[in-house]
Amino acid sequence: MPEFEFKKGMKVEISIEEEGFRGAWFSGTIINPPAKNTQKVLIEYDALLADNGSKPLREKVDFVQIRPIPPRENHRLFKLDEDVDAYYNDGWWEGVITQIVVNDDDDDCKYCVYFRPTREQCEFNVCDLRLHREWDGAKWVPPLEEDARATEVKINGKEENPLSKGNRVEVCSDEDGFEGAWFAASIIEVPRKDKFLIEYHDLMTDDNTQLMREEVDAFHIRPCPPKVEVVKFNQYDEVDALYNDGWWVGIVLKVLGRSKYKVFFKATNEEMEFKHEKLRLHQDWINGKWVVASEALNL
Prior knowledge:
By secondary structure, the protein is mostly beta strands. It has two helices and 24 strands.
């Protein structure tokens, strides 16, 4: 048995041993944990479909073929010859950075990735890449960037400002219809103290030709919250729900079947259904650190 316990409803990644799929990892959900004295787990893929194409593919896989979902760093630039995973054809494929393609119009860049098994090279945006890591049954190797930074902070006695140029952040708005929601963005410039020029990841300009940029103050910006693995949300849990390109605060009103939940939004007095992967545990950024609702009451 593996050191890490895989539970029902948990998001995982699965490797496939068939020709043409070896070396790639595909996201899915554990439907049934293994019975006693077995090494098989029933999983359902997020993107791969059954033969008739009408529903997600389900199959039993061995323990050695599954691992937790690797957390993603908030922001990362890659180097030449660095091993990465590239998202392609619904899966993550291991490759190596062979070229960095700089865009003169802005600070963004693309990366050429070479895949050794197929001897192919493709170009990717940074959002479709992640540092290649191996799961040893209990931890990720090499360690996560956040873990390495925590060690560095302990040694040097100082922390890096998370609201620096290039960092991924979340931004809220006071406009009607958007109150209380947080939208993913990146800091483009810090023109002056407590002011930030940001570019949204999903919100477009009125003419729908480019990503929207605007200047915001410190009260409307925060770092991206750390990912908290939740196997199953419970009734009355405070959550953020991904809807219309933003994260909206709500309460789990009812736990439905098939990893779905009914969420109530107090701000609009509305109820909506969400799949598990569209929810995250609600956290607040208070005094420079992340706290969950129960902890916030004690501050």
